[in-house]
Design brief:
By secondary structure, the chain is an alpha/beta fold. Strands 13-14-15-12-11-16-17 form a 7-stranded mixed beta sheet, sandwiched between helices. Strands 8-7-6-9-10 form a 5-stranded parallel beta sheet, with helices on both faces. A 3-stranded parallel beta sheet has the order 1-2-3, with no helix packed on it. The longest helix has 25 residues. The radius of gyration is 28 Å and the shape is globular. The termini are far apart.
C-alpha cells in the first residue's frame, strides 16, 4: 500500500465480494471501477458502504476499436456461466449462484477445480518444474551456475571408434532388450529427477554453449525432463503384450521388442531436449543407442549421457560419439550393425542419410526424420491485430528464429495488412539482440559463423529483391554472430523457396479466397507448422483440414510444442513422422512379434469348461 493503489474494474458480484472482504481484512485502500451503463444495480448496493469508492469510466475511440470492445463485454455478460446470466435464470438456486469457483464443489453442481501445474497430467506423470526469472531467488542459482561454468572439452571420435562402438552396441542389445520394461522406465525416471535437481547447471550449459536465452534454457531443460517421463510411461503401455481375438483352442499374443542398435543424430538448436528425446525413446523400447550430437554442442550431450549412465543405463547401451556428420555420422549410418536411424536437422542431410541407408545391403533400415520448413501464418481480415503481432514476434524472432517450428512466411489479408505490419514493426524494433546471459536480451547470437554468413547472404539478397520493413538494421553488440530481427515484404508466396534459419520474416499480402492461399502454402512442399489467425471458427477448422501440415496453431503463437500435449513433427519435405512426444512415436522403434499357441495340443481346451 505504500507504493501501489489497487483499482479493480469489475461487474462480477463474486469478485466484488472477494475484494471487499480482503480489503476489510487487511485495511488496504482501494478503488472499484465500473463501465458506464453497466453494473448500476450491484454498485447501488455496494456504495451504501461509505468506505467504498467507485470510478465510472467510458471507452472513447473509433468505431473499429469500440465495436470489438462492446462485443467482448456482451459475450462476457451473455455467457451461460456468467453471474449476470445465472442471476436472471430462476432455475439457478441461491447456493449454486453464490458458490465460489475456487472451492471444491459437489459434482452435480459444478466441475472440480483445475489442477495445479505440478499435477497438470494427473497421476500419469509429474509435470516438470520451471523457474520465474522475475523472482531474484529463482534466477540467482542460474547466474551463479553460469559464472562458475567451464565448458568441458569433448574428444572427437574417429571412424574406427565409431565402428567399434556399433559392435559394442550390437553386443549389448540382447541384455538391455531383455531387461524388463519397468526397469528401463525406472532408469529414465531417475534421470529425469536428476535433471530437475541440476536444472541451473544444465541451463548454464545451454546459455554458454548454445547461446540460449535464460527463458529458452529453462523451457528446454523442462522439455528434456518431460520426454524422459513421457517415454518411460508410454514404453510400459506400448511394450505390454496384447491378447488378440481368435478361435477357441488357440491363444494369440502381440509382443513388442527393440530392433537393435539405433543411431541418434540430434541438432544444435535443441541440443538437450531433442538429444534426450531421441535417446530416451530408443532406450525405453529396449534398443541400444549410438548418440551423435551436433558438432557445436557436444558438452550438453555429454552431461545428459552422464546423467543417464548414473541413473542405471549401461555404458555400452548408450555411447556418445562426437564429431562431424560427414565422418562420424556417416560412419555410424553405414555400419551393417545399425538397426535404425533417428535424425533431426535439414531436409538435405535427411536425404543423404536416406540414400545411404537404401544403398546398404542387408535389412531395410527405418529412418525417423524431422526436418525444417517454410512455416506460414495465415491471417484473415477478422483477426485481432494485437494478438497477431504478439504471436508473430514470438514465432519469428524468439530463439533468434532458430527453431524448426519458427514462423518464416506471414500471409496477411490486404484489408488489415498496413496496421498489422506497423504493429509488428514497432514490437520488433523493441527487441534487444546481444549477450544471451544478460536477462535483458531477447535474441542471442546465431549458433556459429557459418550460420551467420548464410543468413547475412539471404538478408542482402532480400534487400535487393524485396521491400525491407525494418530498415537496414544491424546489431551493435560486440559479440560475434548477433543478428537483429529482419522483415521483408515479398510479392507472392511462390517467391519464398528456401527456409532461412534465423530471425528473418517474409511477409506477403493476400486477398480473395483464403482456401486458395492455403493451397499455395501446401504447394511449397513443406509441412511442419502452420499458424491461423481468424475469429471465424468454421474458417479455422476448414483451413486446418486442408493444410498438409503436422502442427496447426489457431489464434496463438506456433512454437513451443509441449511433450504429450502437442506431439511434434511434419510431413512432406518436413519429415517422416511419427510425431515426437506423441502416442505413436515409440512404435517406430519396435519390432513386432505375434505368438500363436495351439492350446489344444496339451490334450484339450480348458476354456470351453469355464464359460
Amino acid at each position: 500500500p505504500d507504493a501501489i493503489f489497487p483499482q479493480f474494474a469489475t461487474h462480477n458480484a463474486g469478485t466484488i465480494s472477494a475484494i471487499l472482504q480482503m480489503a476489510s481484512r487487511h485495511g488496504v485502500p482501494f478503488e472499484l471501477q465500473r463501465l458506464h451503463g453497466m453494473g448500476e444495480g450491484i454498485y447501488r448496493e455496494v456504495l451504501k458502504n461509505p468506505a467504498v469508492s467507485c470510478r465510472v469510466y467510458a471507452p472513447v475511440g473509433a468505431h473499429r476499436d469500440l465495436l470489438a470492445y462492446l462485443v467482448r463485454r456482451l459475450l462476457e455478460n451473455g455467457a451461460n456461466s456468467s453471474f449476470v446470466h445465472q442471476l436472471a435464470d430462476e432455475s439457478v438456486g441461491m447456493d449454486e449462484l453464490l458458490l465460489s469457483p475456487l472451492e471444491q464443489s459437489k459434482p452435480d453442481v459444478m466441475t472440480s477445480t483445475l489442477p495445479l501445474p505440478p499435477e497438470l497430467y494427473g497421476s500419469k506423470r509429474p509435470n516438470s518444474l520451471g523457474l520465474d526469472l522475475a523472482v531474484v531467488a529463482h534466477r540467482e542459482p542460474l547466474l551463479a551456475a553460469h559464472a562458475a561454468l567451464v565448458l568441458p572439452t569433448v574428444p572427437e571420435a574417429t571412424g574406427a571408434e565409431a565402428q567399434a562402438a556399433v559392435a559394442k552396441a550390437v553386443q549389448a542389445f540382447a541384455g538391455w532388450n531383455h531387461t524388463p520394461v519397468a526397469e528401463r522406465a525406472a532408469a529414465l525416471r531417475r534421470a529425469a529427477d536428476a535433471m530437475q535437481q541440476q536444472l541451473p547447471r544444465l541451463c548454464a550449459l545451454l546459455v554458454k554453449e548454445a547461446h540460449k536465452g535464460w527463458g529458452d534454457a529453462v523451457s528446454e531443460v523442462r522439455e528434456a525432463i518431460d520426454f524422459l517421463r513421457y517415454y518411460a510411461n508410454d514404453a510400459e503401455r506400448v511394450m505390454a503384450p496384447q491378447t488378440l481375438p481368435g478361435p477357441t483352442g488357440e491363444s494369440n499374443t502381440l509382443r513388442m521388442e527393440g530392433r537393435g542398435a539405433w543411431v541418434c543424430i540430434s541438432p544444435w538448436n535443441f541440443p538437450l531436449a531433442i538429444f534426450v528425446g531421441q535417446v530416451a525413446a530408443a532406450l525405453a523400447t529396449g534398443n541400444t543407442v549410438l548418440a551423435k550430437p551436433a558438432e557445436q554442442t557436444p558438452a550438453i550431450a555429454l552431461e545428459a549421457v552422464k546423467l543417464l549412465h548414473a541413473a542405471g543405463v549401461p555404458l555400452d547401451a548408450l555411447q556418445l560419439l562426437h564429431g562431424p556428420g560427414e565422418t562420424v555420422g556417416a560412419a555410424l549410418v553405414a555400419q551393417p550393425g545399425t538397426a535404425g536411424v533417428v535424425f533431426t536437422g535439414s531436409t538435405q542431410v535427411a536425404k543423404i542419410i536416406q540414400r545411404a541407408l537404401a544403398a546398404k545391403d542387408g535389412p531395410i533400415i527405418p529412418l525417423i526424420a524431422e526436418t525444417g520448413g517454410i512455416n506460414a501464418m495465415l491471417v484473415d481480415s477478422t483477426a485481432l491485430p494485437e494478438q497477431v503481432a504478439d504471436a508473430v514476434v514470438q514465432s519469428a524472432f524468439r530463439s533468434a528464429g532458430q527453431r524448426c517450428s519458427a514462423l518464416r512466411l506471414l500471409c496477411v489479408h490486404e484489408a488489415i495488412a498496413d496496421g498489422v505490419i506497423e504493429m509488428i514493426e514497432g514490437a520488433a524494433k523493441e527487441l534487444v539482440a546481444g549477450d544471451p546471459s544478460d536477462l535483458a536480451t531477447d535474441l542471442g547470437p546465431v549458433i556459429d559463423a557459418e550460420a551467420f554468413d548464410g543468413i547475412t547472404r539471404h538478408v542482402q539478397r532480400l534487400h535487393s529483391d524485396a521491400r525491407p520493413l525494418l530498415g537496414s538494421r544491424r546489431a551493435t553488440h560486440p559479440l560475434p554472430h548477433v543478428i537483429a530481427p529482419q522483415m521483408f515484404e515479398v510479392g507472392s508466396i511462390a517467391e519464398v523457396t528456401q527456409e532461412i534459419f534465423g530471425p528473418v520474416l517474409q511477409v506477403v499480402r493476400w486477398g480473395g479466397d483464403p482456401m486458395a492461399v492455403m493451397q499455395q502454402i501446401n504447394a511449397l512442399g513443406y509441412g511442419l507448422t502452420l499458424g491461423i489467425q481468424t475469429r471465424i471458427d468454421s474458417r479455422a477448422l476448414a483451413l486446418a483440414g486442408a493444410a498438409r501440415v503436422g502442427n496447426v496453431y489457431v489464434n496463438r503463437n506456433m512454437i513451443g510444442a509441449v511433450v504429450g500435449v502437442q506431439p511434434f513433427g511434419g510431413e512432406g519435405l518436413s519429415g517422416t513422422g511419427p510425431k515426437a512426444g506423441g502416442p505413436h512415436y515409440l512404435l517406430r522403434f519396435c519390432a513386432e512379434q505375434t505368438l500363436t499357441i495351439n492350446t489344444t495340443a496339451a490334450g484339450g481346451n480348458v476354456a470351453l469348461f469355464t464359460g
